[in-house]
Write a structure and sequence with these properties.
The structure is a homodimer. Chain A is built from 16 helices and 17 strands. By secondary structure, chain A is an alpha/beta fold. In chain A, the strands form four sheets. In chain A, strands 2-1-3-8-7-6 form a six-stranded mixed sheet, with helices on both faces. In chain A, helix 2 runs parallel beside helix 6, helix 3 packs across helix 4 (about 75-85) and helix 10 packs parallel to helix 15. The longest helix of chain A is centred in the last third of the chain and has 22 residues, at about 390-410. Chain A is globular and about 75 Å long. Strand 14 of chain A pairs antiparallel with strand 14 (about 300-305) of chain B.
């Protein structure tokens, strides 16, 4: 089915925010077999929005609009869609109740504007919003589907995952199923060249690679008349990928992240961890506690950004810092050791690097990072040279730190056999 | 001038990459007074691209296309644009030389396909690409401007900054200038309602509000025949905003972030800080070290996620945890105090909360957060009730922690007079 995305919002037209909703919706559509041929963005302007919606309805089967469902006067997506479809807006009792409860729960008072959000086009399917006041709306008119979604990603994403995707899947004659193979430590072009033959032969299942920060994800998507047949098509491809990428694959579960895998392995081996971070400043510990139950394994996270903090809190030797510098193999090693000895954790990850934009030298340019990992009573330090801006370098550091520990835990024979 | 952006690429339609080019181009256009009314994305498909370009030329003065200038057969933006404008493609000698040199410099050989990139529409302005082979192209036809840009951001961004922006500025009769007023601690709808009259009256300068996580930014943009006059138009509006929002404004500098302001104030007062984080897991310390020079002020960052870590590393009383719970005013207070006493920092920020998705209770639902701030020898604890997903709650916690410390530093008489 030809699908079109219309994101509504002056803040996107002005470039104040990047259009992540369009990417998210496009990905979801691709996953369930809806072909997005057009994406567009218009401001909160009734005439231009109406024109865009009319054009979309002429050329596409499904039109998904996001944004402009807020309580202010500027928000007019719902009003415009109703007008284009010649539908009256009527009050939805259920939504009114939900808004009332929402404000009660957050101990605030609704403003008069908020009740505008309880109005819905006559005959529409109302989709509850569990994270905000504006409901989602589905209209089926003359064989076309129009879906209105709230703009804030923290409202849109859960609504799409829990309610819109099942709705769209249900409209689809075929079952579309996919598996996600997640890889760390191999770049996108190398990964692609390792499976070029598979990509070139692909028909059903299809194979697509996605570059993530420090990771490559490979999606294998099959279409079949039922789930069992779709699974059967996917299985041999995933097995082939396992053969080619080996231990670089950290999971084949869609919802599992690298930090999930690391935390799960630590829990399984009954180990606690301590982090000692310099350039990442807490991003590593913050990734670990993304995982439910991480409080069992994270003994403490230490952000030792200054030389003084490295000396005082994790016993890095003054001479080491003087002789080799704060960004060095030697310092990373002492950080990893010191963190374990000072905190009684079983395992540690220590990072020190030059994330830029300043601080680079000829010998140690911006992007130079040392990651130390204390595990099984020994420290391993790896040296990395990342490219990108400050944030990119910090994110790459976090991913590679997690992956270093993951690989060390894999080497552990006992774990490998049990896993 | 009404401006339209068309990004070309199947990888965007499939959601494989997020459309950062559109954001970048939109920002640049807004800054120099080109009004982007439409953005759209189409795949590498001649028919749909031609349709989109024709529509754009009907309704806009300037159309900027990015992507599809590569050497492969799929790349057909230039060919399509030439066809729509009824122009022949002719070889550009200069570009041919440049491509030859480019390959010589990178020690590779051009493929036959690459020479396709030396073809340009007759009469077009050719814009050299300093970071790749595909040149940019500007066509002026019937009072409309069509600009073709290469898709890779590392080619597009420098080309736009050094060549396209000056070209567009030169076409513009007026000077456009803007100021950014950044506010913390007031929600978007409240902020808007506080300046509804100003927004309703706006013509020149224009006033627009943008909701950021935990913040509201207000952009004031003036158009005038010269910079001095534009500044004169902006000044009284910024003064009026200062009157209305008072101390909630943390900066009026475009490039300054909340963490910049906090770090600068700490530096000015000669104070060091220690963070003690539970639910944010290091996000607060990581925000602080975004600021160059933060190593002077961040004594250490502590991530005390488990009860045990709170007891062991920052002396939170076992009875306090038992009686009031880890997420409580009392625990936040002891965390803030303990962090200062254990680390000899002058100031501390301590956060403890329920970021969800689990862990909420009727008395303390998900989103309940306590932020403690030790400053000037006393602890203040504030209670918050945030909504959103886990990450949103954590980000809101970080912003409000920084803002709590900022406001406390403002109260300090000496600082206020000097600032």
């Amino acid at each position: 089915m030809i699908t079109e995305l219309i994101t509504v919002g002056t803040e996107i037209l002005l470039g104040n925010i990047v259009n992540t909703n369009a990417q998210f919706l496009a990905q979801k559509c691709a996953l369930i077999g809806y072909s997005v041929f057009y994406q567009s963005t218009v401001g909160d302007n009734e005439e231009r929005l109406a024109d865009q919606l009319k054009t979309a309805l002429r050329r596409s089967d499904v039109v998904i609009l996001s944004g402009g469902l807020g309580p202010t006067e500027d928000d007019l997506t719902k009003e415009t869609a109703a007008k284009v479809c010649k539908k009256k807006l009527i009050e939805d009792e259920n939504t009114k109740k939900r808004i009332k409860n929402y404000f009660a729960r957050t101990k605030r008072k609704p403003s008069d504007n908020n009740w505008k959000q309880a109005l819905v086009p006559e005959g529409a399917i109302v989709v509850d919003n569990d994270n905000g006041t504006a409901p989602g709306i589905i209209m089926e008119i003359d064989g076309k589907t129009i879906i209105l979604l709230p703009g804030p990603p923290n409202e849109l994403i859960p609504m799409v995952n829990s309610k819109i995707v099942p709705y769209l899947k249900n409209k689809m004659p075929n079952t579309i199923l996919s598996a996600m193979v997640k890889i760390c430590g191999i770049g996108e072009s190398k990964a692609e060249s390792m499976i070029r033959d598979l990509i070139d032969q692909q028909t059903n299942p299809t194979i697509a690679t996605y570059a993530k920060t420090g990771e490559v994800h490979i999606r294998v998507t099959a279409s079949a008349s039922n789930e069992k047949d779709a699974k059967k098509k996917i299985k041999p491809i995933v097995e082939e990928l396992r053969k080619r990428f080996g231990d670089a694959i950290y999971t084949v579960k869609e919802e599992e992240t690298l930090e999930h895998v690391v935390v799960r392995k630590l829990q399984k081996q009954g180990l606690t961890i301590c982090t000692a971070e310099s350039c990442t400043g807490g991003m590593l510990s913050s990734r670990l506690i993304n995982v439910p139950g991480a409080s069992d394994i994270l003994k403490i996270g230490l952000v030792t950004y200054s030389n003084r903090a490295k000396r005082k809190f994790i016993d890095v030797n003054r001479d080491t810092l003087k002789k080799y510098g704060a960004v060095s193999k030697e310092t990373a090693k002492e950080m990893a050791k010191g963190a374990v000895f000072k905190t009684d954790a079983d395992v540690s990850l220590a990072v020190t690097g030059i994330a830029g934009p300043d601080g680079g030298t000829k010998e140690k340019p911006v992007g130079t990072v040392f990651i130390g990992c204390y595990y099984n009573e020994s420290v391993v330090v790896e040296e990395f040279h990342f490219t990108g801006d400050r944030n990119k370098i910090r994110e790459l550091t976090v991913v590679n730190a997690l992956d270093l520990l993951r690989r060390r835990m894999l080497e552990n024979h006992e774990e490998k056999n049990n896993d």
